[in-house]
Amino acid sequence: MTAKVAINGYGTIGKRVADAVAAQDDMEIVGIVKTRPSFEAKIAQDKGYALYAAAKENIEDFKKSKMEVSGTLDELLDEAEIVVDATPGDTGEEYKKLYEKHGVKAIWQGGEEHELTGFSFNSEANYSEALGRDFTRVVSCNTTGLVRVLYALDTAFGVKKARVTLMRRAADPNDIKTGPINALIPDPIKLPSHHGPDVNSILPHIDITTMAVKTSTTLMHLHALNIELKKKCTEDDIVNVLKERPRIRLVSSKDRIKSTAEAMEFAKDLGRPRGDMWENVVWKDSIAINKGELYFFQAIHQEADVVPENVDAIRAMLEIEKDGASSIKKTNKALGI
Amino acid sequence: MTAKVAINGYGTIGKRVADAVAAQDDMEIVGIVKTRPSFEAKIAQDKGYALYAAAKENIEDFKKSKMEVSGTLDELLDEAEIVVDATPGDTGEEYKKLYEKHGVKAIWQGGEEHELTGFSFNSEANYSEALGRDFTRVVSCNTTGLVRVLYALDTAFGVKKARVTLMRRAADPNDIKTGPINALIPDPIKLPSHHGPDVNSILPHIDITTMAVKTSTTLMHLHALNIELKKKCTEDDIVNVLKERPRIRLVSSKDRIKSTAEAMEFAKDLGRPRGDMWENVVWKDSIAINKGELYFFQAIHQEADVVPENVDAIRAMLEIEKDGASSIKKTNKALGI
Hints:
Largest interface: A-B, 45 and 45 residues
Structural class of chain A: alpha/beta
Strand content of chain A: 15-25%
Helix content of chain A: 25-40%
Number of domains of chain A: 2
Shape of chain A: globular
CATH superfamily of the largest domain in chain A: NAD(P)-binding Rossmann-like Domain
Order of helices and strands of chain A: EHEHEHEHEHEEHEHEEHEEHEHEEEHH
CATH architecture of the largest domain in chain A: 3-Layer(aba) Sandwich
Oligomer: homodimer
Distance between the termini of chain A: 25 Å
């Protein structure tokens, strides 16, 4: 028995989650939903995914593009056990009613508020709390990246406080409408930023504040972390904890990975689909303990790091696998992490 | 009597310091030094600055470009009381010997190490210590920007510790050789960065650490500051302290200054020469006290913020003015700050 998964919204995240789900042996894609024809919809069909229109009025558009659709979202929801909602943000409430009507479980992305589902998910930090749930939100790329390291460090040494600056990519690589081309934008200007509270939706006890700035780049986010730990430890202790985590990749500037651009080139050379880096990229040679405080840099591939988390969330919510570590292992193995 | 100032190196900083010196009524430019002819050298002559070649072997080059030179650096040094050295970094030791030979005082920029002069300068923090000195180093743009706010906050409330992320412009606007076009580069990768210790060359008692990242932009640096203060205070207290400082400009995103790009446009609209922003640009609406810690953003125009500091350093070293506040006032008035 394989779990029947629908993908509503086949953009940056949706298409990646679809492929990651298809790569697992305990789940399958029963259909993907798009509002409009596009090169992505065509490639999806070539891959064998059943294509559904978001609504009846969209079907004509697909016909004009000579694309056959299997039906509408409504019809797809009758086939699926769970839907991964990767539609643009702020449509959550509306779709939630629809999913409830069809008795389908649903996973949203970080663009939606915690309140929509009352539960925010990270594979390593709270898998067991997701077991059997109807609705879950996989937190954003930045929050996922922060939770991965903070959970690891908190478990090993206790995190007294974390002060993080997030240098955000301003637009995704395929986005031709967004700027800035040449500027730095404090965003939000009101401090601290909302990213800290978002981490608290999963790790409520951690004292974390964040400041975020949009930068003129498309490739990855970069985090500058300053953390006070409860237990005294060395730089080697930190390396040893982080290198054991399933979704943290330690790199070194000595290997000529000195920037987000080289980290992305590295993912491509690894043969990753779409050149995706699913793991946090932590610079080993940036890890420093100074006056008892920890410092390091990590890069987060905004298009990719939440993808394996979505796969694990499916397994937890459908109770295919009770143990988080086993699901993570399974997901990672199927993807080749 | 006006002080006779030479400018050695007429690039990004040198040309700006020359104009700022020329704008004062107690000092004058006796000559500027270039190694090669360029549009900048031609404009300098149009402005009435006497042009000197760095060495005899460079004179031929100027002749070929039909530019008349008044002599060489050696000859200029016999005319000058003080030289502002804005040559590319790491030539300090060599030139120092030359200046000593000619009995000329000298000011270097932040590209040189503190050790070259044994004294690092900031107008507000240590003007009086520069009085009568032969050699002084005006700290870098980033350090100048940090010292301005830290000195102000330390004087008013005491700084317990400062944790700062520096998002650096990767290249100046006229630099066509430097990247990255699309990446974030932790630089230096080794943490904390050298900017903290550089602040300590002026404010040795302040606990400051810094992390620095090169970003794909040319306009300004952006600092994300997290500061613990000794005295309890409100956001209004912070605003009131910063707005009284002579080289801090408070801006607000409500006035549509939301980024470094708009901060630079603001400087242009103010009618500033070359569109220069000599002051720290501090976002008033970013100033926040959260759990007893202070947070804010500031932008630093890397081409400009050290310019008024160079003028004040001249006045201190030649003892034209004994009082720092009076010199700052004079410099600011002449520039129109």
